[in-house]
């Protein structure tokens, strides 16, 4: 395989007209963790296209739209005279940031799909040099089993978290059916409890306040515990946390309509349903690898949590405001959920995996101060011991848990990327020292579960089959119940 960089001589346009400060900007504390030597995490965003690449349109989009969408896309991290990390604006030549792999012409779709998997495994562990802006666009302009061509944006996590990055990307993309309209997203609704009498609500305030304090310290303690006590080694956790394992990225596509049907039947959220499916699916996989034996293990998933006051997306101009509801940057934490053990009769009652997950997630979401305490604790470690120690503590939970899970909401309409209709869309963080990472992305009427598995340890095809089986068991049980 030969890799070539596209020769584009056009320089990106200046961003002075956007009103952003061109002086050196300090990086946030969380961003500094991602710029340390031991904690380098990237986010890969996959766009499965319905057509082959029109390169002139892509160049024009990157130069005229994308590079001007946010100053981080034309900035590099530098150190000031006091050794503090800052963002510095630089002139960008797009040719340095766009990469296309070249393969022989005339191969079969199966062969190109294998090349695609190998290429993704390679770029998931490669480093982006810090003397250039911390992003790349990889263009795999060959047909695979899922697309006519595939665009892969690779972002260093120091730029921002998923909420910020997706907000920028979505503001740059268009609806296929009506490019004049912005993309729209599903409403974020959760099941509401029945309204109680006003006096009863008053009498409930005190016990709820006391309970919130209790659960805040309980969940904070659980987070600290996972930072020092690792999960059991199982068929989904090798315990090889001293290096970034080579990974294979694969996907499971489910009908969002079917997921919502389960959600409505059980009175839970879409996220609860997906967590329940993954819990049952991973337990079924463990059972199969253990030759049918049921083993109780200490296994935990860390679910990333957006800690902004507003959980939706916002345009760049809104994120950059001083008191923005959806501010730019890395503003996330994580909640720990124990993976329900599989018992003999659970195949007949698979809904318990969703209901247990719903109960725990609801309690932890209602104790947000536990996340604030955790971030405060990291600040104390940084002040007392140093940045490297704080970054290591920040990473420890993801190393000790069985897998990390992150979910995002995609648009309802079909979108286009520089005039290229997008059939499928998902994302995956890489650089995590774990055997399994899971992402969830809704797009149109499809829900895509992304799986990054440790090569040579997890059988990705068996895991996919177990997740699909878990979905079918849960769907059948839910529709029978309804």
TrEMBL record:
The chain crosses the membrane at residues 202-220. It is found in: Cell membrane; Endoplasmic reticulum membrane. Residues 328-474 form the O-acyltransferase WSD1 C-terminal domain. InterPro entries: O-acyltransferase_WSD1-like, O-acyltransferase_WSD1_C, O-acyltransferase_WSD1_N. Residues 115-274 form the O-acyltransferase WSD1-like N-terminal domain. It is a single-pass membrane protein. One of its GO terms (biological process) is triglyceride biosynthetic process. GO terms for molecular function: diacylglycerol O-acyltransferase activity; long-chain-alcohol O-fatty-acyltransferase activity. Keywords: Acyltransferase, Endoplasmic reticulum, Membrane, Transferase, Transmembrane, Transmembrane helix. PANTHER family: O-ACYLTRANSFERASE (WSD1-LIKE) FAMILY PROTEIN, O-ACYLTRANSFERASE WSD1-LIKE ISOFORM X1. This is Diacylglycerol O-acyltransferase. The gene is LOC110729888.
């Amino acid at each position: 395989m030969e890799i070539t960089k596209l020769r584009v001589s056009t320089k990106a346009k200046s961003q002075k007209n956007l009103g952003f400060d061109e002086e050196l900007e300090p990086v946030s504390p969380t961003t500094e963790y991602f710029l340390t030597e031991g904690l380098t995490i990237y986010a890969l965003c996959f766009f499965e296209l319905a057509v082959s690449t029109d390169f002139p349109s892509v160049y024009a989009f990157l130069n005229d739209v994308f590079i001007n969408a946010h100053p981080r896309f034309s900035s590099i991290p530098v150190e000031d005279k006091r050794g503090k990390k800052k963002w510095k604006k630089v002139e960008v030549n797009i040719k340095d940031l766009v990469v296309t792999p070249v393969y022989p012409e005339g191969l079969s779709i199966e062969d190109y799909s294998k090349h695609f998997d190998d290429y993704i495994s390679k770029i998931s562990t490669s480093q982006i040099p810090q003397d250039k802006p911390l992003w790349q666009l990889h263009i795999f302009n060959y047909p695979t089993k899922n697309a006519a061509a595939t665009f892969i944006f690779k972002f260093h996590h120091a730029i921002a978290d998923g909420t910020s990055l997706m907000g920028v990307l979505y503001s740059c993309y268009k609806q296929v059916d009506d490019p004049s309209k912005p993309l729209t997203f599903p409403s974020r609704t959760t099941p509401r409890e029945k309204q109680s009498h006003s006096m009863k609500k008053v009498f409930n305030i005190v016990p709820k306040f006391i309970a919130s304090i209790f659960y805040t310290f309980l969940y904070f303690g659980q987070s600290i515990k996972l930072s020092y006590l690792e999960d059991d080694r199982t068929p989904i956790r090798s315990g090889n946390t001293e290096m970034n394992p080579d990974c294979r990225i694969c996907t499971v596509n489910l009908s969002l309509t079917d997921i919502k049907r389960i959600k409505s039947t059980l009175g839970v959220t879409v996220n609860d349903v997906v967590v329940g499916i993954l819990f049952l699916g991973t337990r079924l996989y463990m059972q199969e690898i253990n030759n049918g034996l049921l083993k109780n293990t200490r296994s935990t998933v860390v679910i990333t949590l957006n800690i902004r006051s507003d959980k939706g997306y916002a345009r760049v101009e809104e994120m950059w405001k001083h008191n923005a509801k959806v501010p730019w940057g890395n503003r996330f934490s994580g909640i720990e959920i124990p993976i329900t053990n599989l018992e003999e009769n659970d195949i007949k009652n698979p809904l318990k995996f969703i209901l247990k997950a719903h109960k725990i997630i609801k309690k932890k979401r209602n104790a947000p101060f536990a996340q604030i305490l955790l971030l405060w604790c990291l600040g104390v470690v940084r002040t007392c011991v140093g940045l490297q120690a704080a970054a290591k503590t920040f990473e420890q939970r993801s190393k000790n848990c069985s897998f990390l899970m992150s979910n995002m909401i995609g648009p309802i309409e079909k979108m286009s990327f520089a005039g290229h209709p997008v059939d499928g869309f998902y994302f995956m963080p890489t650089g995590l020292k774990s055997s399994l990472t899971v992402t969830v992305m809704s797009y149109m009427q499809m829900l895509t579960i992304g799986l990054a598995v440790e090569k040579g340890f997890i059988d990705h095809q068996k895991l996919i089959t177990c997740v699909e089986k878990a979905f079918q068991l849960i769907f059948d049980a839910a529709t029978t119940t309804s």
